[in-house]
Each structure stands twice: as structure tokens, then as C-alpha cells.
Amino acid sequence: MSVIPLKPLRLASLFLTLAFGAIGTGVGINALVKSNNDKDLVRNNAPAGATVTINTDDIFDSGAVMTVVCGLITLATLVFFPLVLISRSPKLSNLTLPLQTGIYSFLSIWLFATLIPVTDFFANRQATVTAFVVYHKIDYLRLAAILPWFTLLFSTITSVVSFFAWRISKKTAASTSTAERSSTIDEVDEKSPVSPISPVDEKKRSTEVSQAAV
Question: Is there a domain that residue 21 lies in?
Fold first, then answer.
């Protein structure tokens, strides 16, 4: 009977990946919306006749990509988590292990690639405005720059756990297949009839023995 390899560990990693994936998506969307609201507020409060240009394309674009990746991680986990949680589908869960490993590895690398610039912009840059807005003093940007690192951590863990579970599943399947083939061969050998020696053959053999003795 098929079993789900590393089930408790996979459930824990998938749960944490789902939780922080959802959190990363939420804080990312919140940061993008409030960033636009803040820019509108600055423009609306500018003196009459003044033109205010606010350039936050660096962190805004990177943050948008980061939010999308967190959303994809959340979506993938919503699909794969039930396959491990519901014990009636161990075969389907094991069949998707290569896919899970590939998806989480790709999304983890992508998220890491977006978190580097987001974190750098958050710590070292500022929006190009008449009155500078320093990123690391804004609470919602702090959440958006820090919490997705936990999403990366648990997504990477899930990728590694899925890979080892896939290897265990392949070894188990290979052992089961070998055992089934061996059992089938034994059954065939047991059912094969032993050909009896006919009287003619017995007489012929006796004659050959007598001639050899002479």
C-alpha cells in the first residue's frame, strides 16, 4: 500500500509556507496600495501651482513582483497541501512530488531574486520627492521587506522536503515492483507441471545404459 513519505514534516512545512505566503501577499498588496495613497496625499497637499513628482519605481516595481511571487507560492500550497493532508490520496501526492519540488524550487529562487532589491531599496534608498520619504521609517514597507523572508525560508524548506520525499517514494516504488516481479516468477515456477517419463523413454534409457556397460 502506498504511503506518504515524511508526511508530518511536509505538513508542517506546507502549513508554514501557506501562512507566510498569504502574509507576504497581504503585506505586499497593502504596501502597494498605501504607497499610492501616500503619493496622492503629498500631491494633493502641495502648494497651489506647485508640481510634485514622486518617483518610487524602484521599490514599487520590485515590491509588485515580490507580491506576485508570494501569491503564487500561496496558490501552489493551497493545491498541494490537501494532497498531503488527505490520507486517501497518497499515490496522487507521491506522483506530484517532482512537480512540487520543481515549483517550490523555482518560486523560492524567484522570490529570493526579488527580495534582494526590495530589502536594499528599503534600507538604503528614498523616494525622489520634494520632501524625502525614507523607506525604513514607514511601517507598512518594513513589514513588506521583512516578512517575505520567512516565506522564502519555508518555501525553500518545503522544496527540500519534497525532493527527499520524492526520492523515498521512488525507492519504495522500485522495491515494491521488484518484489511483485519476484512473486510472479515464483508462482509461475510452482504452477509449471513436471513432465513424467514415459515407459518408452524409460526402456530406451535402460538400453543405452546396458550398451554403455558392455
Answer: yes
**The domain containing residue 103 runs over which residues?**
7-176
Instruction: Kindly report the backbone phi and psi dihedral angles of residue 132, in degrees, each rounded to the nearest multiple of 5, phi listed first.
Output: -65, 140
- The candidate with the shortest Cα–Cα distance to 2, out of 164, 168, 160, is 168
How far from each other are the two terminal CA atoms of the chain, in whole angstroms? 65
How far is 92 from 8, CA to CA, in rounded Å?
17
> Does residue 210 lie in a domain region?
no
Does residue 37 fall inside a structural domain?
yes
Residues 6+ apart with CB under 8 A from 105: 159, 163
Q: Return the closest-CA partner of residue 145 out of 34, 67, 38.
A: 67
Task: State the pTM of this model.
Answer: 0.69
Contact 52, 130 (CB under 8 A): yes
* Number of domain units in the chain: 1
Distance CA 168, CA 138 (A): 46
pLDDT tens column, 42-77: 777 766 555 677 778 888 899 999 999 999 999 999
